[in-house]
Amino acid sequence: MAALMSTYAPLPVSFTHGAGAELFTASGESYLDGVSGIAVTNLGHAHPKVTRALTEQAARLVHCSNLFHISAQERAAQKLISLAGMERVFFCNSGAEANEAALKLARLHGAAKSIDQPKTVVLEHAFHGRTLATLSATGNRKIQAGFEPLVSGFVRAPRNDSSALEAIAANSTDVVAVLLEPVQGEGGVFPLDQEYLVRIAELCKENDWLLMFDEVQSGNGRTGSYFYYQQSGVVPDVLTTAKALGNGVPIGACMARGPAARLFAPGHHGTTYGGNPLASAAASAVLDTLEAEGLPARAPVLRSELIDSFQATLRHTDIVKDIRGAGLMIGIELQEPCAELPAAALEKNILINVTAGQTVRLLPPLVMQQSQAAQLGESLAHTIDRWLDARYEVTAGGQQCVTS
Ligand code: PLP
Fold first, then answer.
1. Omega of the bond prior to 149 within 30 degrees of 0, cis?
2. Which of 255, 254, 252 shows the shortest CA–CA distance to 282?
3. Cα four-point dihedral sign 236, 208, 173, 265
4. What is the DSSP string of 329-388?
């Protein structure tokens, strides 16, 4: 499409409507959604409670700006901080914006301590967004290339390496915060080690650094709890989220507790749209539904169903290097790059994603039926087997040789 700037290379399929875990083309062909719009539609497509909240709110008031009290926003804020175990929230429009707000909190925390050149520790393989500050925080050169000079004030550390962080603590006096995804998403679906998170929390406390978790992807029920940190037992000072918070209506949130929750004062930060009545109504409907329908608890059940059926069906089992993640944030790392698989999966009418080169990433909705989870696992196994069969040809002598 020549009118669009070339930022994506979309697959050759387009959808006109959806219902639950299914998406439909104009001709009525159905696809099982294993991606949820990249961890966004956790409640599935066209969830009636979200649709009702949106239509009712749209008929009353879509936008009025943060110059005025917004009761829908105050309601969403109360619900979100109570489920997230935080004290205050700033609403914005995306994950990158939520992380920008967190990074500004870190700078203010440093300014309050008269640190002129404050630094935030970030991890290798991290992904925090595409704005200049968040791509600078991201641990992937491909995302940064061409956008230099990067925003300064970041110190990079290897993931799951406590001694590297201890060395930073021993040698730097200008660190003010650590920003990390407790389950790295784009970096290959890697939950960080529990002991590592505990050690980071200790170092943050000892050194008065803010512990900031990016749960833009892992939040809102996806991993089996409202936020992944609630399973890890390590409580951050700052918590960001977005994606599934509005089930597709753009909304992000930067939450905080303790002194970090009181760093922003009027004039420090702002947004025209953030937390407007329509987006807030969506967020409240999502959070109410997650709670009322007990949806986070479905994540581990559906995970097992999906992985069991995948493993029971796959013939080329030695292609799988690792299966990891948490709840319905599933990474299946293969022995080799597999960028072609999402296109190949369309032939089996399933939607999947590949991240970090050779990891199939599955992010199906929490409302998926168990039979659909099993079908997704089975169809993924058939897709991988067919992809490998096409690349290897069994010779008459029974040996295998690469044909492409
Ligand atoms: N942080 C994480 C962990 C993400 O996975 C993403 C998006 O994939 C972002 C931040 C950026 O979110 P957005 O695309 O809404 O700006």
1. yes
2. 252
3. positive
4. EEEEEESS--TTHHHHHGGGTEE-EEETTTEEEE---TT--HHHHHHHHHHHHHHHHHHH
Mean pLDDT over the full length of the chain: 96
Q: Is the pLDDT of residue 397 over 90?
A: no
Atom nearest to 185 CA in ligand 1: 5
pLDDT tens-digit series, residues 216-250 = 999 999 999 999 999 998 999 999 999 999 999 99
* SS3 assignment, position 255: strand
| Residue 399: pLDDT over 60 | no
Q: Looking at residues 311-319, what average pLDDT do you find? A: 98
Q: Per-residue pLDDT for 398 more than 70?
A: no
CB of 355 within 6 A of ligand 1: the answer is: no
| Residue 84: C-alpha distances to residues 54, 79, 220, 247, 278 (Å) | 23, 9, 9, 17, 21
CA of 65 to the centre of ligand 1 (A): 24
pTM (two decimals): 0.97
Residue 100 tokens read as: 């920008």
- How far is residue 190's CA from residue 39's CA, in Å, rounded to a whole number? 15
Residue 404 reports pLDDT greater than 90: no
Which is nearest to 352 in space by CA: 384, 399, 304?
384
Pocket mutation for ligand 1, best pick of 42, 215, 217, 238 (most atoms within 8 Å of C-beta)? 217
CA-based nearest residue to 183, from 116, 230, 228, 123: 228
Give the residue carrying structure tokens 């804020």.
77
Any atom of ligand 1 within 6 Å of the Cβ of 361: no
Can you list the alpha helix ranges (DSSP code H) found in 208-335? 229-232, 277-292, 298-313
User: How close is the Cα of 183 to the center of ligand 1, in Å?
Assistant: 12
Tokens of 196: 């590592």
Instruction: Name the E strands within 181-231.
Output: 183-184, 190-191, 210-214
Cβ-based neighbours of 398, under 8 Å, separated by 6 or more: none
Alpha helix locations (H) across 85-182? 95-112, 132-137, 141-144, 162-171
100 Cβ below 6 A of ligand 1: no
Measured between alpha carbons, how far is 265 from 261 in angstroms, rounded to an integer?
Answer: 10
Per-residue pLDDT of 164-194, as tens digits, reads 999 999 999 999 999 999 999 999 999 999 9
CA distances from 69 to 49, 60, 73, 165, 272 (A): 25, 15, 8, 42, 13
